[in-house]
Specification:
homodimer, mainly alpha, Tetracycline Repressor, domain 2, 0% strand, DNA-binding
DNA sequence: CTAACCGAACTGACCAGTCAGTTCAAATAG
DNA sequence: CTATTTGAACTGACTGGTCAGTTCGGTTAG
């Protein structure tokens, strides 16, 4: 049960300057991911975030325009990392089902490394007139596209149940991934990574006809 | 897109008195379910809840000891209704897979009727040192028990993949149910009830060996 | 090499507004 | 007559956001 976000795999250096500011932003990301993941966006104060990042409140507003903006960038940041992880398996597996399994493994590992992001995502995603509604639509579709592509490959290689709507299937996978992952972290840490992957793969096995 | 909680199917009248107070409590439940489902527990004020229920703030504190207590009772209330719905199919289907399908139908209908509860549940469920942590553990296990029982019947009637851990499978079902349901409401209202059920049933079809 | 300089990055006290929670006398309804 | 509700007042803590002032690292002139 480690529970600390690891350093990010190096975002592109922006200009010449932001030696300090990049590090600061990173620490603000880490701190706010942790806190917001635990208590929700509305439950965390900017003061707390600043304190946790070892930075003054003013610095938060120097680096981000507002609390809302910080969270928006946080979401973008987290999704970028997750997308990166999911795409590492690209072209490594001949069998689409194996590829899917590897992808689920990446997803589970991501959730181990960034548990707070998963919580943040799931707790803010379906708020109705959300401040970040537009952003969620965009990020969601990026994530679903990756899952959808993996399903697509399965569908072209195997005979699948064409009666199942693709969109609903993606949503089911998505939901299973997040909830199985979060449940494991929060309530059942004894469950293994492989157990979890196997349970989610059940969906794909039910999709493929034999 | 209706989005209004219908009247509750009559909870047992408590004593003799609470003719007025029961109605008041009900309206407070409805109002807070709506608001908290939309903006989260921390994002809603007691004043707002009182106003939305058409009741004074004092009444909230007369009927509930605190905001926290209100939310706890709200969770209990919602889970009771959901449990009631899921159990209506009890013994109506000879085939466990049909029973499961009927149960998923009940779950989808519940989410249509109480969309805000689903949002409330999913957004507060995995908060780490949650104020309602103990309560969530209890309510969660009640819900999972019902799903688990339905899976159990499938497992005794059909030949299933015993390599799949029961707990993880329940979690996968649970996650698929909520996310498919919420996604349909929030982002894809054009998806049908049956489409959604079919997608979730994929899990069970993958679990059963043929 | 070094001292003066510059602007980006950061600080923390401060503000005006909001919050949950409490109380209570008066009104109302069963 | 009594349980319930009202609505308003009050508190003390906390909120997001602002801003005048300070620090820092790198650049440049001498």
């Amino acid at each position: 049960m480690s529970m600390h976000e690891p350093a990010v795999p190096e975002l592109p250096e922006r200009k010449l300057r932001p030696a300090r500011t990049n590090a600061t932003k990173q620490r603000l990301f880490d701190a706010s991911m942790e806190l917001i993941g635990e208590r929700g966006a509305a439950g965390v104060t900017v003061d707390e975030i600043a304190a946790a990042a070892g930075v003054s409140k003013g610095t938060v507003y120097y680096n981000f325009g507002s609390k809302s903006d910080l969270i928006a960038q946080l979401l973008r940041h987290g999704v970028d990392i997750m997308l990166g992880r999911l795409q590492t398996i690209e072209g490594l597996h001949a069998d689409p089902l194996e590829a899917m399994e590897a992808m689920l493994g990446q997803a589970m590992d991501f959730m181990d490394d960034y548990p707070s992001f998963a919580r943040l995502w799931i707790s803010e995603n379906w708020r109705t007139p959300s401040e970040w509604g537009k952003l969620f639509v965009e990020l969601r579709s990026e994530l679903l596209a990756v899952i959808g592509a993996a399903i697509e490959k399965v569908a072209t290689t195997y005979t699948v149940d064409t009666g199942i709507a693709r969109g609903s299937l993606e949503a089911a996978m998505f939901g299973a991934i997040f909830v199985v992952g979060l449940d494991r972290q929060t309530y059942n840490p004894e469950r293994t990574r492989e157990q979890s992957i196997a349970a989610i793969m059940t969906i794909m096995r039910g999709y493929v006809l034999r």
